[in-house]
Amino acid sequence: MEDLYKYERELNRKGIEIIGGVDEVGRGPLIGSVVTACVVLPKNFRLEGLTDSKKLSEKKRNKFYDVIMNSALAVGIGECSESEIDKYNIYEATKIAMKRAINNASKKIKIEHVLIDAMPLDFDIPTTSIIKGDAKSISIAAASVIAKVTRDRMMYELDKKYPMYDLANNKGYPTKKHIEAIEKYGITKYHRLSYKPVMLYKDKICK
Question: Are 24 and 143 in contact (CB under 8 A)?
């Protein structure tokens, strides 16, 4: 079983205690922002079953979201909109969103070190990039839950306005139903114009 506290313990041994975990969600969807979260947990925080949000049921993610939000020393959310994704590309937009999340969390507490899932990041706070970090670090796992629940709730709101795209179920990913709806109705102002198949219908706007 993965030791989710290993990276945090190593930093604690060096005298570093205010640690931010950062993760993103929404690089693959055709619609909406990419969302990131930076979470600073108390030193002795424990939450049985917390891991990469993709491995958790929606019910458990929502439960853990509430626990993390109530327990964390700081939580920062960062977004990059669909227009920014089109402008910069998804990789650069994700890095921008991560920096925004860290900055937002830093307004609440002085972060000494940041652990990031996979993506290397140039920042004015020391950072460590961990491959599959959302399953290896408790801080990153917490951030993955916050980012995932935050973005899913954004998709539920969009689904109320555009039910034909089935966003409540596909969360914006290119499922068969989502693509068929694009072909039939066109796209919304929230779709990413730089993504296939969206770019094929950029002149067909759904009202």
Answer: no
Q: How large is the angle between the packed helices 58-71 and 138-161, nearest 10 degrees?
A: 120
With 0.90 as the threshold, say if the pTM is over it: yes
Q: Which domain holds residue 42?
A: 6-151
Number of domains the chain is built from: 1
Q: What is the CATH number of the domain that holds 14?
A: 3.30.420.10
Helices (H), 23-172: 58-71, 82-88, 90-106, 138-161, 167-170
Residue 91 belongs to a domain: yes
| Segment 110-134, tens digit of pLDDT | 999 999 999 989 999 999 999 999 9
**Two structure tokens written together for 93:** 């937009």
β-sheet with 74-80: strand ranges across: 74-80, 34-40, 19-25, 113-117, 127-130
Examine residue 160 and state whether it is found in any structural domain, yes or no: no
Residue 116 identity: I
